[in-house]
Amino acid sequence: MKSIILISVFVLTTISTLWADKEAPQYVYVRSSYGGQYYFKMIPEADYDRTKGRGALYLVTKKRLDKVLWKVKGWYAFQTYISYDGRYLIRIGNWPRGRIPSHKHLGIAFYDKGTLIKKYSTKDLVKNLPPVRASVSHYRFLEKVLGFESAYSHRFKIKTADKMEYTFDVTHGKIVSQKKVK
Amino acid sequence: MKSKIIIIFFLMIAFNLWADEEASQYAYVKSSSGGRYYFKMIPEVPYNRTKGKGILYAVSGDQSDKVLWRVNGWYAFDTYISHDGRYLIRLGNWPRGRKLTHKHLGIAFYDKGTLIKKYSTKDLIKNPSAIMISISHYQFLAKVLGFEPIYSYRFKIRTVDKIEYIFDVTKGTIISQKKVK
Question: Which of B19, B69, B81, B166 yields a CA-CA distance of 20 to 30 A from B90?
Fold first, then answer.
């Protein structure tokens, strides 16, 4: 009896591990602003730890080294966006672990010169639970990042997995509009 | 005679006032999809749209990113980099004049900084009457649609005469061209 239980536990654990969704490792990247006069560099700080990282916003110069305007630290995001004027940063929450939206899971956050001004959890953003696509160990709360409304705008758009289209004003992080779309 | 000179003088001033103002060049960065590479375009001579240089960097954890390749002898306001940092797409600057010509660059493709293929505005536009003419320039592109899909080597543009081109950036050839609405 004992051996059957042990074997079953072992097999189930192995299968569950094999099926678990693999997270991408963090990496150093650069995201340029519209027009390209600024760029944000995101640097992971610890291997396989999605929460530790730092970033710096650079003003492009003609020289070899560009000028650092502001910095962030204490987090890493795979997806970030910079406003055309290099002032505002939009941080998209990393692929959340688990199967349901939670206030503990970051959805989107807004920064002004590196200082957090507003953030929303996945639970704040996703209104209708069933369409949230869950995989074995993670769920997806965003369908698409639509980005800045126009090139030189401070309005930023996302579409959630339950087909809500949010428009944010990145200067204070508030929701300007939210509507159900197809 | 004097009055004629004065009229000509005023006409010249008026023409200059009406002329479209070109943006001055500036140093900028364009990151690749995924952000592991970026291209830095640097103007070399103020108010000279043709002189500049560019450097492709691989991003590293510190400020001294690694130079992978360079270009020089030109400046473009609009450039794109493939996700792997190898290919560069250079779009022609706002062309001066009112007519399509083979002298005006439309789009060019580079492999690690070496030119592989280029097209003039005349090569791209099939219906010359569709170009949007202003006082001293014309517009030949309606929209740059970019890489489609993002991590591909297919690059899309739409011209003002509503032709959608898809290029293979690895050799700069046209994969497809079709009239769109």
Answer: B19
Query: Is the model's pTM score more than 0.90?
Result: no
| ipTM of this complex prediction, to 2 decimal places | 0.81
Signed CA dihedral, A80, A84, A89, A92: sign only: negative
Q: Is residue B133 part of a domain?
A: yes
Nearest residue on chain A to B60, alpha-carbon basis: A28
pLDDT level of residue B2 (50, 70, 90 thresholds): low
Which one, of B147, B159, B137, lies nearest residue B109 by Cα?
B147
Rounded to whole angstroms, the Cα distance separating A141 from A92 reads: 11
Q: Which amino acid would we find at residue A15?
A: I
Identify the closest residue of chain B to A57 by CA–CA distance. Answer: B63
A32 and B31 in contact by Cβ < 8 A? yes
Q: What one-character DSSP code corresponds to residue A24? A: P
pLDDT at residue A11 tops 80: no
A81 with A147: CB under 8 angstroms?
Answer: yes
CB A69 within 8 Å of CB A115: no
- For residues A42 and A53, the answer to whether their CB atoms sit within 8 Å is yes
d(CA A53, CA A148): 25
**Taking residues A11-33, what's their average pLDDT?**
71
- Cis peptide bond N-terminal to B149, omega within 30: yes
Number of domains in chain B: 1
Residue A92 pLDDT greater than 60, yes or no: yes
Domain span including residue B162 = 22-179
Domain-located, residue B11: no
- The helix (run of H) or strand (run of E) holding residue B54 is strand B52-58
Is B16 inside a domain boundary?
A: no
Residue B162 burial (CB count, 10 A): 14
**Domain segments of chain A as ranges:** 25-180
Q: How many CB pairs under 8 A join A and B?
A: 53
